[in-house]
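call fold(seq) -> tokens
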Amino acid sequence: MSVCIDITGLPAERIVFETSPLAELAVALHALAEPGHHPATQGWATAISAALKPDLADRLSEADFLWRSTFSDIFMPFACVAGGHVRPGATLAEDLDILDRLDDEEFVTAALEFSCGSRYAAGLPSPLVDRARHAIALELAASRGPRQLGFTQRLLADPPTVRAWVRRLLEDCDEAFFADTWRRVHPQLAADARHKTELLRHKGLEEALTSVSAALSLNTAGGRTRIEADKLAHGAATATDPAVGPGVTFVPSYHGWPHLLVLHASGWRPVVHYPVAAPELPSAASVELLKLRLEALAHPVRLRLCRYIARAPYTTGELAHAHDLSAPEVSRHLTVLKKAGLLTTCRRGRYVLHQLDVTVVARLGSDFLEGILR
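ret:
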């Protein structure tokens, strides 16, 4: 499973690393709404939530589907402005001015994408002009709650008024907490963007992608060149759409981990929103490896074997005797565990001993969470 960006024939100078205050505000709001996803910023989230004025907290709850369960593309509007490459704003006000340049259909379609599901990149008509999409948007909003349904109804009935309300809400967030937060994190994000730009320029795209995330890779099979993001999702985009200007934008994020976001909507320039590296953040396990490990541990016999080899190293013969199994049967189960990277082996004379890698198993829960949230 992966999300792919076709960059065949794209000039290197069209791959850029830039910061965006509006994109960072989106993940900051998500971290406030879902602090359990972001253990590294829970202290910040707790302090900000406690200091929010009731009116602002109340208004944030109305529109929280824009950042709680998905990250609405309206937070990266530079990727949708027609007429060539548009850079993110240097300030939140500039980013909001770019957002104002989207027409109502573009804004509403992006704002009411509740799930980023299988139809996300299909280029479906806007709920403003399509009755079926209009009904689906209301149905999905209703499942979020009555206040979210009311917000959606107002947005569909009067987009300009609600767009002005959203802008004011984000400006109030800036005044309440985000301006200070952005001043604190922006130097690190800008330094990261400069570093990745230098890597791209001097060592090439593959090296730059590796430095962004272990979940990103470059695929040159079949005469095409693609950036692939290892995610529990399928998606594809092209970076050569002349309507919005060919290119791919990489945007670093301080609050984003463990989320690696790939904007690949039809009619938008692709964007990769990635968490900046930090010493305390472990490297991500691939989705395929995570799948192998979960499948390996799902078998009841292998679970019983793990109970033994978690405590001490055992030979195949010892395990067969302890569980009333044949040695070949035990060997087959151990092979599955080893292929999944869950075993270590050592030789003692003519005996081979197997032991569960408890460090890897201990990380399995966080690997699983990161894999499904990535």
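The radius of gyration is 24 Å.
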